[in-house]
Design a protein that fits this description.
This protein is of the alpha/beta class. About 30% of the residues lie in helices and about 15% in strands. The chain has 18 helices and 20 strands. The chain has an eight-stranded parallel β-sheet with strand order 13-12-10-5-2-1-15-14. A five-stranded antiparallel β-sheet has the order 16-17-18-20-19. The chain has a three-stranded antiparallel β-sheet with strand order 6-9-8, with no helix packed on it. A hairpin with a 6-residue loop joins β16 and β17. α9 runs parallel beside α10, α12 packs parallel to α17 and α13 runs antiparallel to α14. The protein is globular and about 80 Å long. About 45% of the residues are buried. Bound molecules: 6-O-alpha-D-glucopyranosyl-D-fructose and calcium ion. The site of 6-O-alpha-D-glucopyranosyl-D-fructose has 14 residues, from loops.
Length: about 575
């Protein structure tokens, strides 16, 4: 089976603001990334996704773009960018940029002109509405809290922002908007980037319902805000816009289009990534990272492996024919995986490596988030001033105004906030973990003296070396890239057991998600399976003709012989 380069790749997400500072201002930058390209090469990854690097006032740290053709001044210059591109390419590492085109910054020229001149060429670039009876046109709530409509004094109208008020949504039904966006995309592809991660790409087409007195978007009985998701996710013209984007942009380049999709299940996903006309190549979705929450992320509930396996299995079945999957456990929007799906306190090394083994052997393209490869963990917040993420700040303020105990809220933020994964990359045990000579823009994890890359690099038995080994294993065993996926004991609450199989090779992957020993294999089959790797046992420690029980948080891989 022949795969595209992006199907064979192991991807690595960099959050530039927190990766490496080069000039002592406490903010990571492109020259910092350049100085760490050798590290990426050593790790063995094939593709880097940079969170947004375009000019931005940083209301949402780059996810609010004020100029799509300029590098954010804190991050450097276009020359720096080109040097990074070349440094990566010379090591066969592809470069993926984050394209945020559902909304711009309110500082973008388009928005400024749109406010000033309703009848001018940009007047219709955003969603404007005069309102009804001095109220917004509907009761949609924004994802970061508050109403999704903001009154604009200048234009004397409301505008729509599904996220922060400083992130007005573009009006995609205006073809001029679409043309401008395609131009920007072509500009970067011509500059040699290898693809895009497309931010909240399934929100482009809004379904504005009739706003009669009892229509669903008119609020609950007391006129409270409603969740806008059903009205804005996978809307009526989404397929049309993406098909156009494909023919105007994607079809002209050897590139990968990775869509971030919210509120999208595997059936909806099929329409986006399967079949020869599919507009996108793969999706970053949320089903598996919502399993440990109730209504929303601030209401945790316990994680169930059975549910997790069901999500993986269902997505695989939906997409393997003519489509492709992508996996991530941590991102710049999600807390650290080792805290969530493992046991960072009692089994830090084992659970971090167990998660690595899973991520790198599931059927699809794996995305490693910076710092996970050295076992970075969530933060302890002691002071509200340490919270930098606008979503968490809004949440904190709301809870305090409702009379909640600040300590409890900080503790919850230390479990759930996006700040957790945005703390500076821990390079070594020197001042500020080697991230900066200045004052880091965001709280550094105080475990950096124990948890850092320098201490693990080339050290046997480190998390970093285990990641490297598994990344290499994907090259040694192509079945990990192109093989079928077949699960066993789906109902088991502690073990994730699956096979990867192609016409030459079959691998068996056993993952123990529990803190207890687990029996699984019978010795009578031992002649049939050859031990390959484990995060607990070495080759020498694994007995012949026997299957030791799986240790707590052990991941083990065998190869089936004689076929
Ligand atoms: O992170 C979330 C909740 O904590 C998500 O709701 C997230 O906001 C959503 O998945 C969209 O994410 C993307 O677009 C946002 C930006 O803040 C995120 O960083 C980005 O990944 C708006 O551009
Ligand atoms: Ca800097």
């Amino acid at each position: 089976m022949s795969l595209d380069w992006w199907q064979e790749a192991t991807a690595y997400q960099i959050y530039p603001r927190s990766f490496q500072d080069s000039n002592g201002d406490g903010i990571g930058d492109i020259r910092g990334i350049i100085s760490r390209v050798d590290y990426l090469d050593y790790l063995g990854i094939d593709m880097v996704w940079l969170s947004p690097i375009f000019a931005s006032p940083n209301a949402d740290y780059g996810y609010d773009v004020s100029n799509y053709r300029k590098i954010m001044s804190e991050f450097g210059t276009m020359e720096d960018f080109e040097e990074l591109r070349d440094e990566l390419h010379s090591r066969d590492i592809r470069l993926i940029l984050d394209m945020v085109v559902n909304h711009t910054s309110s500082e973008h020229e388009w928005f400024k002109k749109s406010r000033e001149d309703p009848d001018g060429p940009y007047g219709d670039f955003y969603h404007w509405h005069p309102g009804k009876n001095n109220e917004p046109p509907n009761k949609w709530g924004a994802f970061f809290g508050g109403a999704a409509w903001e009154w604009d004094e200048k234009r004397q109208e409301y505008y729509l922002h599904l996220f922060h008020p400083a992130q007005p949504d573009l009006n995609w039904s205006n073809f001029k908007v679409r043309e401008n966006v395609y131009d920007i995309m072509n500009f970067w592809l011509e500059k040699g980037v290898d693809g895009f991660r497309l931010d909240v790409i399934n929100l482009l087409s809004k379904n504005f319902p009739e706003t009669g007195t009892d229509s669903a978007d008119n609020g609950g009985a007391n006129g409270e805000l409603v969740d806008c998701t059903p009205f804005v996710a996978n809307g009526p013209r989404l397929q049309e816009y993406l098909a156009e984007m494909k023919s105007e942009v994607f079809d002209n380049f050897d590139m990968v289009a990775i869509g971030e999709v919210i509120a999208t299940d595997d059936r909806e996903a099929k329409k986006l990534v399967t079949g020869s006309e599919a507009p996108l190549d793969m999706l970053l979705h949320f089903e598996h990272v919502k399993l440990d929450q109730n209504e929303n992320k601030w209401q945790p509930r316990s994680f169930s492996l059975v549910e997790f396996k069901e999500v993986i299995d269902r997505w695989y079945r939906s997409l393997y024919k003519g489509g492709w999957n992508a996996y991530y456990l941590t991102s710049h929007d999600q807390p650290r995986a080792v805290n969530r799906f493992g046991d960072a306190e009692n089994f830090w090394y084992r659970s971090a490596t167990m998660l690595a083994a899973m991520l790198l052997t599931l059927p699809g393209t794996p995305f490693i988030y910076q710092g996970d490869e050295i076992g970075m963990t969530n933060l302890d917040f002691t002071d509200p001033a340490e919270i930098k993420d606008i979503e968490a700040i809004n949440f904190y303020e709301k809870m305090i105004s409702q009379g909640h105990n600040p300590e409890d809220i900080l503790q919850l933020i230390g479990q759930r906030s996006r700040d957790n994964s945005r703390s500076p990359m821990q390079w070594n045990d020197s001042n500020n973990a080697g991230f900066t000579d200045g004052e880091p823009w965001i709280k550094l994890n105080d475990n950096y003296e124990q948890v850092n890359a320098a201490q693990q690099r080339n050290v046997r038995g480190s998390i970093l070396e285990f990641y490297r080994r598994l990344i290499r294993l994907r090259d040694e065993y192509s079945v990990l890239k192109d093989g079928f996926f077949l699960q066993s004991i789906a109902e088991d609450e502690d073990l994730f057991v699956y096979w990867r199989r192609n016409s030459e090779t079959t691998l068996l992957i056993l993952i123990n998600f529990s803190a207890e020993e687990q029996e699984f294999l019978h010795d009578e089959f031992s002649h049939n399976l050859e031990f390959i790797v484990s995060n607990v046992l070495s080759n020498k420690e694994h007995p012949r003709q026997k299957f030791p029980a799986l240790n707590p948080y052990e991941a083990r891989i065998y190869k089936q012989l004689g076929r």
